[in-house]
Amino acid sequence: MQETDAKLQLLLLLLQVFVVSATLHPADYLALQSLRASLSDLPGSSFFLAWDFTADPCSFPGVLCSADRVVAISLGDPRARSPGLTGRLPSSLFRLSALAELSLVPGLVAGPIPAALPPGLRFLALAGNLLSGRLQPSLTVLRRLRTLDLSANRLSGPLPASLLRLPELRTLILSGNRLSGSIPVGVSAPLLRLDLHGNVLTGFLPFLPYSLIYLSLASNQLSGRVDRVLLRLSQLRFLDLSVNQFSGPLPGGLFAFAISTLRLQRNQFCGPVRPSGPLAVDGATIDLSYNRLTGAVPAELAQAGRLYLDFNRFTGRVPVVLVDRLVAGQMRLLYLQHNFLTGFDIGAAVPAGTSLCLEYNCVAPPPSSRSCARDAVPPRMRPPEQCAAIRKKKKSN
């Protein structure tokens, strides 16, 4: 009797598994099983607890189906500070032929990106893990891909030119990896956002798509002039080229773009700054510090909310309009330290919560200026002989 009951229970279990798999395409069912076998929860995560294959896989957390096919997978608990997952991405992912979206929360998933991926992917986000190796050719054949985020991993090697030519790619985020080589020429993808900061890219900046709204190339080893390239990108709202080796003049037309954040610090830009007109965005953050910029401080930058011009070679008097905006509390930060400025006329105290730094120039900082937050410079003024040399050079010119 007990043996009969056991056989009956086994038969019911097999029937249940058959019914479940019959509601989902067999290839997708097997691919999900492979995915579950390849990944596991980190301590504190319970994402896979409900992945019980005696139930309908389309009801699993993170799985979305349409008819009998899996169309989207979100792996891991998306809540903030979730421990994430560990393991490796299985090679069987390509069997999910209807999959359009695949995302993975930050965790400890390691190894290479699979050599083959579902051809219909439109969204792929695997940021914040330990993925390594080169960018696979499997990425460059995803003709429908619109968003690719592989940031904060351990990917290395060059940027494939074909990746930057995908016909529908709008967002490409590869920051915080170990990518090397140059940015390929002939970028034709209709990109809106390109983020490559925090790699070891070298070479010059090629022409980029006119469509770009967000561009970050900070903390690489890129060099050369950028004036001709940047003037083509009139749709930019965010630009960060900081901590590179770019050189040459800054194009005046750049300051007329509707950019709310402009970060060009710690490069080798040189020459005077001559904006073609007032800033287009009131309250913008402009950081031109740690370059080799010369000439007068431009009055056109007065609309900035935070203005960093420190550690350059600016000369002359600070425009009154900048001082007025600062006193009125409309400019929240003005860093001018380590230049060769000779005048700063202020008739009122700097408001609380506003930062002004004027140290190490050819003028005594006003009593209302506060100590510099970024660099503590012991002397309050430059040595007289340095200032005299600058005045003599200006007279000779």
Structure, explained:
By secondary structure, the chain is α/β, with parallel strands linked by helices. It contains 6 helices and 27 strands. It has helices at 2-23, 26-38, 137-140, 227-230, 320-327, 384-396, and strands spanning 39-41, 63-66, 69-75, 85-88, 101-104, 108-111, 123-125, 130-134, 147-149, 154-157, 171-173, 178-181, 193-195, 200-203, 214-216, 221-225, 238-240, 245-248, 261-263, 268-272, 285-287, 292-296, 306-308, 313-317, 333-335, 340-343, 355-357. Strands 2-3-5-7-9-11-13-15-17-19-21-23-25-27 form a 14-stranded mixed sheet, with no helix packed on it. Strands 1-4-6-8-10-12-14-16-18-20-22-24-26 form a 13-stranded mixed sheet. A hairpin with a 2-residue loop joins strand 2 (63-66) and strand 3 (69-75). The radius of gyration is 28 Å and the shape is elongated. The chain starts with a helix and ends with a helix.
- Could you describe the largest sheet, including whether it forms a barrel? 14 strands, mixed
Q: What is the CA–CA distance across the termini?
A: 109 Å
The fraction of residues in strands falls at 25-35%
C-alpha-based Rg, rounded: 28 Å
Overall, the morphology is elongated
Report the total helices. 6
The residue-averaged pLDDT reads: 91
Q: Tell me the number of strands.
A: 27
Report helical residue fraction: 10-25%
Q: In terms of structural class, how would the helical and strand content be classed?
A: alpha/beta
- The residue ranges in which pLDDT falls below 50 over 5 or more consecutive positions are 10-21
Largest sheet strand order: 2-3-5-7-9-11-13-15-17-19-21-23-25-27
